[in-house]
Design a protein that fits this description.
Distance between the termini: 39 Å
Low-confidence stretches: 189-194, 404-409
Helix content: 40-55%
Number of strands: 22
Largest sheet: 11 strands, mixed
Mean pLDDT: 85
Structural class: alpha+beta
């Protein structure tokens, strides 16, 4: 133990003796360890940390699916959910839920509250116990006159000042009276664990409660102890088959798909975070190689010192231990500084990460992350310290002690190790740069996708008319007509329209409805489907969507006139090949349509992208109906302005309040920002991988420069002899550059092979480019070689300026 303390003390003295080298090494390691810790914090939360619910390993997300149509994750109708609940024998509990917003209007101005409609079984299934009162009861899962609501502790404290008498109090939600029955701890949205839900009401208060065609519920279940997912799948397959036979019109070809809840929540982020974890591991390896080269150079300068210690009786293990202690001290310091970098990095990741990053609010440096940081620091110290230590611990005592201090070119073993480290740095850097380049090209192509409309200078907002005054179509139509006229009169407003959903928005729902064509009604197994929107007459003009055939909607297309419909070019091409669809009739009642159910096609418009996921897919069939003929209580306003669209937001809010003070607008944003949000996730991962690749490039270039500078220093005497014997400066330059570029080119060759192999794992993250994209591979290769050449040329040029007389006296 005494000798260990001696080695620790001596190691500290050596680090302090060379503060510049120590600082560079610590910062280099801190970058690598900090990046690994930050990304591991995300991996830990998404993939390793259990969900914050009771027995999370038994939680299953239950979807309907229609594999024939490629629909793998369909929401569920309440009647189907009720059948699952009553017939299964594999679930301990099963619950349904769906997002819903509420207008809280009991005091002051209305406030929009995020919540859910749920089956009462959701709370015991997740192990959520009330802070006050109780949770919803099973008998409240059926239509009744008693409206119950459970609220979050956050809402209770914020809006109701932690009123202890809140239980039994009546509050106004959507202008209807609800009785508060309980307060529960703050829980985030079950599906993505991001949204802060604050209200829960029974499903029985939802629209389409008894409609087997109304698919709007997410379903989660808890497996019984001992039941496997395969057994549960077999049981649910049997139930799905029975429902298809009993209700063929709504359930034919509908299967059930079970997904572990943890897997469902993580989704496509698993591959992305693992790619990033691999990237930061590469950065750490490059950093370690850099520090190893520093230690090799320092070991060469300490060759005489180590030889003297060996001559005085120090064993090889004692020398290796001494040098490893110095390496581990460096890695410990790097780990400590890296942990600070990581804490800052986690904050940046959460603050600037995409909105759909699962469990983002839970990302933090917990005990597992600290253990990871310690382990990485220890392993890094061993990785970059062991080889230099072994090299330095084998001095040739006779030769070293006879040297007067003149340094030759260094041993061949040292050169081979340094070159090997350069090769590894270049290879790892090239793999990272190719990955970042592929994501960059993919992102550029994604941003260039034409959504089919002009998003510039458009303000969008949602308005949901709630309450007893808006239970019928007439007041809904009247409200929207008046609001549109008021908004048109606002200064700076060029055009205004409404539609059912905000286009491209990932956080807004969409409707994919079945339809029939006159003379070609499909059977239950071959239903035709298309995305649906109810729009106001000026919608296509407002969004600058050209009408390719026929006419747009007009003011005369109201409830008193013939029903009309407009389709996009994909629907026309797919279902009316070789014929003019204008004048043909379609219906949304494709089972037993009556005369009033038919709508005449009056126009064909250009394809648009209705959802964010459609940006990377082919155009889909889409149909539009006049809002006046198919009014909806929840709509999106689209306001095109002549200047900054956000400037009219306050005025629009005011106009809504003048029409009805109990109503409010929400989700106010520009359509440009919606487009930006749609590509937030690929932009985020591209930016991160780009940063890591840039850091790797800088570290690799610093490493090459350091190796070449050291080589020039070691060969100063040799260079002096060559120049004294008549060698020209150009000859010396070629010699140094040739020796430096050899390992670089070998590293490039290995890196290209590695990149071609590893980037195939990224194929699902790419759009419009392949993993072997020639442009990316060529650009990165040429760029890296040029930068490496510059890093070699700087010390090489310095070598050409050596004075032969000075070099011959160099020691």
């Amino acid at each position: 133990m005494h000798t260990l303390w001696q080695d620790l003390h001596y190691g500290a003295r050596m680090l302090l003796k060379n503060p510049g080298v120590t600082a560079v090494a610590v910062i280099t390691l801190a970058l690598g360890i900090g990046a690994n810790t930050a990304i591991f914090s995300v991996v830990n939360t998404l993939l390793l940390r259990p969900l914050p619910f009771t027995d999370p390993d038994r939680l299953i997300q239950v979807w309907e699916a229609n594999f024939k149509r490629g629909q793998n994750t369909m929401t569920v109708s309440y009647p189907n959910f009720a059948e699952w609940r009553n017939q299964n024998h594999v679930f301990e509990q099963i619950a349904a839920y769906s997002d819903k917003t509420f207008n809280l209007t009991d005091t002051g101005e209305p406030e929009r509250i995020q919540g859910e409609i749920v089956s009462p079984s959701l709370f015991p299934l997740l192990g959520i116990k009330p802070v006050l009162g109780r949770v919803l009861l099973p008998e409240e899962d059926y239509p009744n006159k008693v409206f119950s609501v459970v609220m979050s502790e956050r809402l209770w404290r914020r809006h109701f000042n932690s009123d202890p008498q809140i239980i039994g109090r009546k509050i106004k939600l959507d202008s209807e009276s609800f009785t508060v029955v309980g307060v529960v701890p703050n829980v985030t949205d079950l599906f993505d664990l991001q949204s802060d839900n604050e209200l829960w009401v029974p499903i029985s208060h939802s629209f389409g409660f008894n409609n087997r065609y109304g698919h709007y519920l997410d379903v989660v279940a808890r497996l019984k102890p001992g039941v496997t997912r395969q057994q549960a799948q077999a049981n649910m397959d049997t139930i799905a088959g029975a429902l298809a036979a009993q209700y063929p019109s709504s359930n034919v070809d509908h299967a059930v798909r079970l997904v572990p809840l943890q897997q469902q929540i993580v989704g496509d982020f698993k591959l992305a975070v693992l790619v990033l974890l691999g990237a930061v591991l590469f950065v750490l390896l490059i950093a370690s190689a850099n520090v190893a080269n520093m230690l090799l150079a320092r070991g060469a300068s300490r060759k005489r010192e180590i030889a003297i210690r060996a001559a005085l009786g120090a064993g090889r293990w004692r020398i290796v231990r001494q040098l490893l202690i110095e390496s581990l001290s460096l890695s410990a310091l790097g780990g400590a500084v890296g942990l600070l970098f990581a804490l800052w990095g986690v904050y940046v990741l959460v603050a600037f990460g995409p909105a759909d990053l699962p469990r983002a609010k839970e990302v933090a440096a917990d005990g597992r992350v600290l253990v990871f940081t310690f382990a990485v620091s220890l392993l890094t110290g061993i990785i970059f310290g062991l080889v230099p230590a072994l090299q330095a611990s084998r001095p040739d005592l006779n030769e070293t002690l006879k040297e007067s201090g003149r340094s030759a070119t260094g041993s061949a073993g040292h050169r081979r190790v340094r070159n090997l480290l350069v090769v590894s740095e270049i290879a790892l850097s090239l793999v990272l740069l190719v990955g970042a380049g592929l994501l960059m090209r993919s992102f550029v192509k994604l941003e260039a996708v034409n959504p089919g409309f002009n998003p510039n200078n458009v303000l969008t907002m949602k308005i949901s008319l709630r309450g007893p005054n808006y239970q019928k179509d007439t007041p809904i139509i009247a409200f929207h007509d008046q609001l549109i006229e008021k908004i048109k009169a606002l200064p700076g407003v060029q055009a205004v329209a409404t539609r059912s959903h905000v286009p491209i928005a990932a956080d807004d729902g969409y409707a994919n409805l079945s339809f029939g064509i006159e003379g070609r009604l499909p059977d239950a197994a071959n239903r035709l489907t298309a995305f649906y929107n109810a729009v106001s007459p000026d919608y296509f003009q407002t969004m600058e969507i050209p009408v390719l055939k026929g006419r747009p909607f007009e003011a005369r297309d109201d409830r008193k006139s013939q029903s009309v419909i407009i389709i996009n070019e994909t629907l026309a091409r797919r279902y009316f090949p070789g014929e003019d669809p204008i004048g043909r009739r379609m219906t949304l009642n494709d089972e037993d349509p009556k005369e009033e159910d038919w709508a005449t096609i009056v126009g064909v418009v250009r394809d648009t992208k209705p959802r964010a996921v459609d940006l990377t897919a082919s155009a889909v069939p889409e149909m539009y109906m006049p809002f006046a003929q198919q009014p909806e209580s929840s709509t999106a306003l689209m306001i095109r302005t002549t200047n900054n669209p956000a400037s009219v937001a306050a005025a629009v809010r005011h106009e809504v309040q003048t029409l009805d003070k109990t109503q409010l607008v929400h989700s106010v944003r520009t359509l440009d920002s919606v487009m930006s949000e749609a590509v937030a996730t690929p932009r985020f991962r591209t930016s991160l991988l780009g940063v890591f690749a840039f850091v790797a490039l800088i570290l690799a270039m610093v490493g090459i420069y350091g190796v070449m500078s050291y080589a020039v220093t070691q060969r100063t005497h040799e260079i002096g002899i060559r120049m004294a014997l008549g060698a020209r400066a150009a000859d010396v330059l070629k010699l140094i550059v040739r020796n430096g570029m050899g390992p670089v080119l070998l590293g490039v060759a290995l890196g290209l092979a590695g990149a071609i192999g590893l980037t195939r794992l990224m194929v699902s993250l790419l759009f419009g480019v392949t993993p072997t994209d020639a442009v990316t591979l060529a650009t990165v290769t040429v760029g890296l070689v040029l930068v490496a050449l510059i890093s070699c040329c700087i010390p090489a040029r310095r070598a050409t300026k050596v004075d032969p007389l000075v070099a011959l006296r160099y020691e």
